[in-house]
Design brief:
Length: about 90
């Protein structure tokens, strides 16, 4: 999260919101947000949302995710909200 430049905005039981400012570090060749950066932001939000329901001595990891990009996004700030649907 730190290497990406993402910021933690909100954490509640079963919920996490993170943001990422557009920069050259997270851009692709046409100047928009890189799909990998957008996927990583979604993964971070989902992972931390899941972690809120885990016991204190447990870690969580992503096993699989799929993203369909419907439009490009450039400039500004990207936000991702992870919501826990089912623990376990």
């Amino acid at each position: 999260m730190q290497n990406l430049g993402a910021r933690l905005l909100r954490v509640e039981p079963g919920l996490c919101e993170v943001s990422l400012l557009h920069s050259e570090r997270v851009s692709q060749q046409q100047g928009g947000f890189h799909g990998g950066a957008m996927g990583a932001l979604a993964d971070i939000a989902g992972g931390y949302a899941a972690l809120t329901a885990a016991p204190p001595d447990m870690e969580v990891t992503t096993v699989e995710y799929k993203i369909n990009f419907l439009a490009s996004f450039s400039g500004g700030e990207l936000r991702a909200i992870g919501r826990l649907v089912k623990a376990g």
